[in-house]
């Protein structure tokens, strides 16, 4: 893959045949990195990695341990556990974004990677939206209506908030009503934390 803007997918898989299969499935649309164990994965991990496909059961560092270290390091990547282990209640404490049980198909892998990339973009929009709304509220609490009306910066801020609201609303299925929109965002903000 030679496209410098292609999303980066890190495959962490100790079975070479499985790792190569995932690589072949994904290499046309993504920059793919392959690590054969947890230590190698942590060495390959950097700010460019968008999605990690992480085998849960590996010799040495387990996928669970690698996941913990990824989250402790503060990387913004999305992590899909890809494993033959049937999920149990212990997954409630884990900070992954998706859980795939082997064997998986090409379409399933592609769909998971795409969903995680969309979620990353959506989270970025949501974070920007909350940040700008906070700034807007602060200005509205401290400036007079006349001062706000005269400010080009405030007008640009309001326009950007409206754009983000439209983008987020479309992502959420076209919520039109402001109260519904805000309630939905609050629900997502409270319920989607890992």
TrEMBL record:
Residues 147-174 form a coiled coil. Signal peptide: none annotated. The modification 4-aspartylphosphate is found at residue 55. Gene3D superfamilies: 3.40.50.2300. Keywords: Coiled coil, Phosphoprotein. Residues 8-117 form the Response regulatory domain. GO terms for biological process: phosphorelay signal transduction system. It comes from the Archaea. The keyword Metal-binding does not apply. PANTHER family: RESPONSE REGULATORY DOMAIN-CONTAINING PROTEIN (PTHR44591:SF3), STRESS RESPONSE REGULATOR PROTEIN 1 (PTHR44591). This is Rec domain. It comes from Halapricum desulfuricans.
